[in-house]
Write a structure and sequence with these properties.
The protein is an alpha/beta fold. 33% of the residues lie in helices and 16% in strands. The protein has a single domain, classed as 3-Layer(aba) Sandwich (Rossmann fold). It has an eight-stranded mixed β-sheet, with helices on both faces. The longest helix is centred in the last third of the chain and has 18 residues. The radius of gyration is 17 Å and the shape is globular. The protein binds NADP nicotinamide-adenine-dinucleotide phosphate. NADP nicotinamide-adenine-dinucleotide phosphate binds next to helix 1 and helix 4.
Length: 255
């Protein structure tokens, strides 16, 4: 693994790597593309190193075609290698594989890491409709993640309403909000700083992790809208002040 590892001090400015578990998939690769285009180094994870390598090859081709000269480095790894290589780990796997992914990666996480969970518990996981969610005993997929991760690894829920298709099309402008849920404001600010490296994304603090239940269910509604309107809809919250994250520059002081 050629990625340097260290504490993330300010994700709006530094070039610390971000790891993506399930980075070969629709959301994971779209996110990797946008992060890399924004100059953020990304470790693309997969259960299979070859699939990760293939995903990186395709992403590099897209970045090359778009002429992204200052792209962040893309590195391929198996999921455990990806988790080991970054302080912030984005989880992009289907809900049906959510708990088994945490079980298999349990030993790879270390205290202090932050997991950004984008999982939506769609009923499709149990052969139901993608326009419905299923109940999760803990309240949401993100709370399930929080319960399953080792002590000291924290969870922020985000990205549920951002279309993988739009992320994966560099020529398509983003102009939408990302609702960020978590129990620690500093963690949310850290994730907001990272997400806002991507042009056109604004992160909004949507409250504690228990609010993830509501945010996750918005995706099922958006999927229905997308079918009706043949679109890739996102969401926008109105009436908010312009500076939603004043702590971005000194969030380490807030812990
Ligand atoms: N697609 C969207 O627009 C979108 C938007 C917001 C949120 N989400 C959420 O993000 C998550 C990922 O969505 P997606 O559309 O990117 O899914 P996807 O493309 O179907 O799958 C993502 C990755 O998950 C891994 N995976 C598949 N089966 C697995 C298994 N049995 N165990 C462990 N990993 C497995 C695969 O990676 P490897 O085979 O390489 O390991 C795959 O590339 C979902 O929870 C979804 O609800 C999706």
């Amino acid at each position: 693994m050629s990625v340097s590892v260290g504490p993330v001090s300010d994700l709006s400015a530094t070039s610390e790597p971000v790891a993506i578990v399930g980075g070969s998939g629709a959301l994971g690769s779209g996110l990797a593309l946008r992060f890399a285009a924004a100059g953020v180094p990304v470790v693309v994870g997969s259960r299979d190193q070859e699939r990760a390598t293939e995903a990186v090859r395709k992403l590099e081709a897209k970045l090359g075609a778009a002429g992204s000269a200052d792209a962040g480095a893309l590195t391929a790894a198996d999921n455990a290698g990806a988790v080991a290589a970054a302080e912030v780990v984005v989880l992009c796997v289907p809900f049906r594989n959510h708990s088994e992914t945490f079980t298999s990666l349990r030993g790879a996480f270390r205290p202090g890491q932050l997991v950004v969970d984008a999982t939506v518990p769609l009923a499709a996981a149990v052969s139901g409709k993608a326009t419905r969610t299923i109940g999760v005993w803990q309240g949401s997929a993100a709370q399930q993640a929080d319960e399953m991760l080792p002590e000291g690894v924290r969870v922020v829920a985000a990205l549920h309403t951002v279309s993988a298709k739009t992320l994966g099309t560099l020529g398509q402008a983003l102009d939408e909000d990302v609702l960020v849920c978590g129990d620690d404001r500093a963690d949310k600010a850290r994730v907001a700083a990272l997400l806002q490296r991507i042009d056109g994304l604004r992160a909004v603090d949507a409250g504690p992790l228990e609010q993830a239940r509501i945010v996750e269910s918005l995706t099922a509604m958006l999927i229905g809208m997308n079918v009706r309107h043949r679109a890739h809809a996102g969401i926008r919250i109105t009436g908010l002040p312009s500076d939603l994250w004043p702590e971005h520059t000194n969030h380490e002081d807030q812990r």
